[in-house]
Amino acid sequence: MFRTKRSVLVRRLWRSRAPGGEEEEEAAAGEPGAAAAVAEPRAHLGGGRGCCPGKASRGGRAAAGAEAELKALTHAVLKRLKERQLEGLLHAVESRGGARTPCLLLPAKADSRLGQHWYPLPVLLCKVFRWPDLRHCSEVKRLCCCESYGKAHSELVCCNPHHLSRLCELESPPPPYSRYPMDFLKPTDCPDSVPSSTETGGTNCLAPGGLSDSQVLQEPGDRSHWCVVAYWEEKTRVGRLYSVQEPSLDIFYDLPQGNGFCLGQLNSDNKSQLVQKVRSKIGYGIQLTKEVDGVWVYNRSSYPIFIKSATLDNPDSRTLLVHKVFPGFSIKAFDYEKAYTLQRPNDHEFTQQPWTGFTVQISFVKGWGQCYTRQFISSCPCWLEVIFNNR
Questions:
Q1: How far, in Å, CA of 2 to CA of 4, rounded?
Q2: Mean per-residue pLDDT for 207-217?
Q3: Which end of the chain is more exposed for a tag (fewer CB within 10 A), N or C?
Q4: 118: confidence class by pLDDT, cuts 50, 70, 90
Q5: Which residues lie closer than 8 Å to 35 by C-beta, 6 or more apart?
Q6: How far apart are CA 140 and CA 122, in angstroms?
Q7: Helix, strand, coil: what percent of the chain each, to 5?
């Protein structure tokens, strides 16, 4: 039977739809303590939403009926697209967002009914191709590369599912199992500091929470960059500091179409099998974006990342959380206004210590803290330190 190119594209897109949530365990595979975090996502992520994708629990007959209804609705939407739009959408889906793909602009008011619910087209396509448990547009965030970014009211809206990310909601109050001491407030001559390699080949004393050469941000009048990024493998920094001037930066190991900070091009002498294994899993990595309300981190990889930031937690807390961010999720990792508020605590003990709250730590694949075997981030195989320019 002869098939048109359009019908072939529609069939390929349907075959590329997201599975029904089975990849949850894969994302947490190999991480001590991660199974518990996945097993109880609702208790740890307020409101039933957050960094952990949920699972659908339907009976066999009901699931088959829902699948048939979703297929009919998806085909009806896709058949309205032009051939070029179908090709762009297929490229985005098959590359899992690794390729630069154009916006898929469709009428903003063209909602579709699925079961008892009405879904905007962007949410429907995200539900089909990325997150089957997605319910509402408030659960997603547009990436800055999208034409619809920052546009509240428009006749056309982008429906490319890889131009959106899932919002990671923070828990309140935080669970005690993941609390992490505020070691970044320790002075640099503390006894449990670890040696770090420097660009000059010497060795400096480094507290587990801060870079010794963060003084690069303190040059008078230097406003050319908004942050610098350092890549570490365990206790050794690899490569030079990467200065960031553009509002968005991709940090990756292997990205089909990307320019930015490529960790795969750095020369590393680390022969550890664990480091090499984790390095190979960085993949598409993360996207670091400076936006109006702060700095966002989007996890583009296929594995979770772990983030610690002074502005993510309760300002009255003397401990910090290490936050787990699943693939496809975004989190506001740094808030400038909150950081300036925290910079001058009233507590006399705080004021006697160096303040490095303008730093965010990000570990790929492996977490650290009290629920993991690694107590400090310097024990993680592959991690980043992002130092923000407070000028």
A1: 7
A2: 42
A3: N
A4: confident
A5: 25, 28
A6: 10
A7: 30, 25, 45
For the cut 80, the answer to whether the pLDDT of residue 1 exceeds it is no
Task: Using the CB atoms, write b or e for 94-107: b if 16+ within 10 Å.
Answer: ebbbbeebbbbbbe
Residues 59-73 have pLDDT tens digits of 566 677 788 889 999
pLDDT at residue 223 in the model = 61
CA-based radius of gyration for the chain: 22
Q: What's the CA gap between 66 and 68, in Å, rounded? A: 5
Q: What percent of the chain is predicted at pLDDT more than 90?
A: 50
| Residue 58, pLDDT score | 53
In this structure, the strands spanning 383-388 and 227-233 are antiparallel
Angle subtended at Cα 179 by Cα 301 and Cα 360, rounded to the nearest 5 degrees: 50
Neighbour order of strands in the sheet with 359-364: 236-244, 227-233, 383-388, 359-364, 305-309, 323-325
Within 10 Å of residue 243's Cβ, how many Cβ atoms? Answer: 15
Check if the beta carbon of residue 96 is closer than 8 Å to that of residue 256: no
Query: Does residue 102 sit in helix, strand or coil?
Result: coil
Q: Find the angle CA(146)-CA(363)-CA(168) to the nearest 5 degrees.
A: 45
Contact status, residue 374 vs residue 360, Cβ threshold 8 Å:
no
From the list 322, 309, 304, 316, the residue with the least C-alpha distance to 180 is 322
pLDDT for the residue numbered 114: 79
**Residue 146 is encoded by which pair of tokens?**
């999208």
Amino acid at 362: I
| Cα dihedral across residues 354, 357, 362, 368: positive or negative | positive
Higher pLDDT, 349 or 258: 258
Highest mean pLDDT among 18-27, 123-132, 184-193, 222-231: 123-132
Cα–Cα distance list, 85 to 13, 102, 106, 134, 291 (Å):
12, 9, 10, 23, 29
Structural tokens at position 5: 């190119």
